[in-house]
Amino acid sequence: MSHDKKDKNAKKQTTKDLEQQVSQLAAQVYELTEALQRERADADNIRRHHADELSNLKNVVKAGVVRDLLPIIDNFDRSLRHVPKELQNNDYVKGVQGIVKQFEKTLGDIGVTRIKTVGEVFDPRLHEAISVEDGDPSTSSGQVVEVICEELQSGYALGNEVIRHAMVKVRMESAPEDAKSNKQKEGEAT
Question: How do residues 142-153 score in pLDDT, each as one tens digit?
């Protein structure tokens, strides 16, 4: 009987040892699984960060190339503004107009937009005022806004980034009713 008791004790000990090993292995599996999940999350974050950095770099390069091309586009625009009336239907002039349209389409295709100017309210984030003209700011409320009356040089933006500010002339005018209410709303929001 003592031999049976020893066998039972040995089996109990072996079972306890095995249960302990299983418990230790389960804990290791859990720890390794958590570590793997953290590593995967880190790798995903690195991939996302790399994609964002690459996108930003592409935009910087695009903006630089566009900035280098802007003087050429400006010269085309100037030349078309000064075409004599008798040459306006000339095939050569139409060809130059086609080149300008092609430039504008290509810029649009890569996400570059021309900044709106004439008739818009002056925004120093987008526009550079070269001169200010006195307008007719007579209004009972006394609110006056700076409205762009002439564009001297086009401005361009790539997404939310201004590549070049638009150079403009500004005239002081009475604020329209909707602009007044917008200014009041902006004041209340701050």
Answer: 677 889 999 999
Which amino acid is it at 103? Answer: F
- The CB density around residue 175, as the number of other CB atoms within 10 Å, is 19
- pLDDT category of residue 133 using cuts at 50, 70 and 90: confident
What 8-state DSSP symbol labels residue 164? E
Closest by Cα among 126, 121, 117 to 172: 121
Amino acid found at 167? M
Please answer whether residues 115 and 128 qualify as being in contact, where contact means their C-beta atoms are separated by less than 8 angstroms. no
Q: DSSP 3-state assignment of 162?
A: strand
Q: What is the mean pLDDT of the chain?
A: 85
Nearest by Cα to 125 from 116, 134, 133: 116
**Order of strands across the sheet that contains 112-114:** 112-114, 156-158, 161-164
- Determine the Cα–Cα distance for residues 149 and 171; give it in Å rounded to an integer: 6
Q: How many CB atoms lie within 10 A of CB 43?
A: 10
Q: Are 112 and 157 in contact (CB under 8 A)?
A: yes
Taking CB atoms within 8 Å and a gap of at least 24, the contacts of 79-86 are none
- One DSSP character per residue, 135-157 reads -----SS--EEEEEEEEEE--EE
Question: What six digits make up the tokens of 52?
Answer: 């964002």
Element holding 116 (H helix, E strand): none
Radius of gyration of the chain (CA): 35
Amino acid at 142: G
